[in-house]
Structures are given as C-alpha cells and as structure tokens.
Design brief:
346 residues; binds 5'-O-[(R)-(carboxyoxy)(hydroxy)phosphoryl]adenosine; Nucleotidyltransferase, domain 5; 10 strands; 9 helices; binds zinc ion
C-alpha cells in the first residue's frame, strides 16, 4: 500500500509532461496537489479528420517549451525547486511520446533529479486523486478514451487489474468515426455530445453487439450506422442534415448503454459500490447523467472527474508520478517511450 501522505517539511515538487497524442501539456504538483496544468490543443489535425502522427510530433516540439514555462510560472515554481520530473511513457504515438520523453530526460539530467515514467491509462484513473472526493479502494473504474475501453479494478494507487476491455475499436474511436460519417469535425465526440442533447435518443435503434463476459466491441455499431446511413441517403440525400440531432442522440444512447451494461455486470460480479469513470469519453454529458441515475438504482458512490481532467492533461501524469515517487518507482535515463505500454496485474 502506497502511503498517501508526504512529509511537508521537505516538499515534493514534480514537473510532469504529457505528449502521447495531440495535446501538449505540462503540470506542476507539490505534495500531491496540482498547482498548475497547462494544455495546448493541436488544431492542425481538424483539417485531416484525424490525428496525423508527424504533425503531432512537430506541434509538440513547438509547444513544449512555452507550455512548460507557463506551468512553472503559474505555479510560482522555478526549475531549481523541482524534486523530480515525469513524462508519459506510453501508450501513444511514438514520435509524439519521443518529444516529451527527450525533453523531460534532458531536464532530469541537467537538474540531476529523478525521472519518473508514467503509464497514460493508469494516470487517467489516478486523475481521481487530484481533487476531493476520492474513491476508496478497491474501486471499479470504467476507462473510456480515444484508444482504450477498459474495466479496471483499482486495488491501490499502483495496483490495478484489468477485468474487461474492447476487442476492437475503443468507444472514443467509435464516437469519432460515427461523427465523421455524420459530417462532424474532428474529434467528433464532443460535437456529437452537444447535438445529442437536442435529439430523440430512441428515434433510431441501432443493434448492440453482445460480447462475452466483461469485454466490449464497438466496430459492429459503427458498421451498422454506416449501412443505415448509406441506405437512407439513397432515398433521401439530405437525410443526415434533417435528422442530425436524432441521429446523434440515438448513437450516443447506444454507445452509453453498451458501456453501462458491462459496468453494472462487473460491479455486481466483484461486489463493489465505489464506481468511477475516467478518460476523454467520461466528459460525455449523457454518460455522466446516465451513470448518476444508475448509481441511485444500485446505491453506488460514483466518481466523475472534472471535465479538464477527463481529456488528456499533465495534471494526471503529475499525480501518478507523485505516488510512483513515494513507492520508489523512479527510472534511469535509458528509459524510452513504449507506444503499446500495458499496465495492471499480469
Ligand atoms: O483521453 P483522451 O483525451 O485521449 C486518449 O487518451 O485517447 O480521449 C479522447 C477521446 C476522443 O475520442 C474524443 O472524441 C472523446 O475522447 N471525447 C468525447 C467527449 N469529449 C472527448 N466523446 C464523447 N463525448 C464527449 N463529450
Ligand atoms: Zn488519454
């Protein structure tokens, strides 16, 4: 068990950098409290309908110095006050990860302070320890992002067990790909969410693929929407524009029900009432409100991150690094990014 207190007579100040995909972010934490969290979003990808890895790396290179300076400035911390530096080791895009890791390794070497390598998905879950209220161990976390959909039993800060995951697309990917079919900009998840609030969620019932145990599959829904739209557009070419809000609401309701069905099964099976969600898709307003309702029925305590800690940010990397530092998990300068990095009990 990692102790969550720290001797405040010698503060632990960490600079963390996140660069796994298309946000360049830096944060400062002091004794496990976030003092600043700066995020630079890369608008360049909007023109391409998806993240272009090479453009992401170049944008990280441009953003990283100003973002780190701003994080230090807002926290009122100078480089010499840092006790450790942390970065996202993976999973993510190799070129993007390399920018953050090289930058942070240089700082570790130049300032002669420990380096901490953080798993991005584990950090999404640990974002629940940035603020109050904090979930009590063990809790069940539904982690939903652009690259992952997982059910994780969190036994302790650094002791996690994946009990279910997607066998194909991540749910964020499903949101984005379907949004693209509907002609929405990239990333489509937030746009689809906004339009869904004005539509009828039962207007277009899409088939739900049923997976064994606690695993998920989202590629079937995406294909079902693709074929449905293709058939409708043959008869009526402005079908999407005329029904956009109802289409968004129906897609969103389908994806949410697939997530919550498995979450409920898992919670009953492992017998926990402490339930959390994490990752970019946990910003979805429908998921947040449906989860609150389910919590009342099941008498769960639910933990939903603040919007700024749902999508990619370095505050979550700083918090993960804080607990790793306390557990003695520091790294050497030979550490390198791992685009397919895993976490959890083997
Ligand atoms: O965690 P995240 O920022 O990056 C990854 O680690 O992948 O998640 C990004 C994903 C994207 O697929 C984005 O469309 C989705 O989160 N997302 C949303 C919403 N906000 C972000 N999906 C649905 N509704 C939202 N409000
Ligand atoms: Zn993420």
């Amino acid at each position: 068990m990692v102790k969550d207190t720290y001797n405040t007579s010698s503060p632990l100040v960490i600079l963390a950098v996140e660069s796994s995909c298309d946000e360049t972010s830096a944060a400062i934490s002091k004794n496990g409290r976030v003092l600043s969290n700066i995020v630079a979003t890369q608008a360049v990808h909007e023109n391409y309908g998806g993240v272009v890895p090479e453009l992401a790396s170049r944008a990280h290179q441009q953003n990283i110095v100003p973002v780190v300076h701003q994080a230090l400035r807002e926290a009122n911390i100078t480089k010499t006050m840092l006790n450790a530096v942390a970065y996202t080791q993976g999973p993510g895009l190799l070129g993007a990860l390399l920018v953050g890791s090289s930058f942070v390794k240089s700082l570790s070497w130049g300032l002669n302070i420990p380096l901490i390598s953080v798993n991005h998905m584990q950090a999404h879950i640990l974002a629940h320890f940035i603020d109050e209220p904090r979930p009590k161990f063990p809790f069940l976390c539904l982690t939903v992002s652009g690259g992952h959909t997982q059910l994780v039993v969190v036994h302790d800060y650094l002791d996690m067990e994946i009990i279910g995951e997607t066998l194909d697309d991540a749910v964020g990917e499903a949101f984005d790909k379907i949004a693209k079919l509907l002609g929405l900009p990239y990333p489509g998840g937030p746009y689809l969410d906004k339009l869904a609030s004005q539509g009828n969620p039962s207007r277009f019932p899409f088939p739900i693929s049923s997976m064994p145990a606690m695993d998920f599959s989202f590629s079937g829904v995406k294909t079902a929407v693709l074929y449905f739209l293709r058939d409708q557009l043959k008869q009526h070419e402005s079908f999407i524009e005329e029904n956009l809000a109802d289409l968004c609401a129906s897609v969103q309701a389908t994806l949410i029900s697939m997530l919550l069905e498995k979450l409920e099964i898992a919670a009953h099976q492992i017998g926990v009432r402490e339930i959390a969600i994490a990752g970019g898709v946990s910003a979805n307003s429908g998921l947040r409100s449906q989860l609150e309702k389910l919590a009342q029925t099941n008498q769960w305590n639910v933990y939903i991150p603040k919007i700024e800690y749902c999508t990619d940010n370095a505050a979550m990397i700083a918090i993960a690094a804080h607990y790793q530092y306390l557990a003695g998990q520091t790294d050497t300068l030979t550490a390198s990014p791992n685009p397919r990095m895993k976490f959890g009990r083997k």
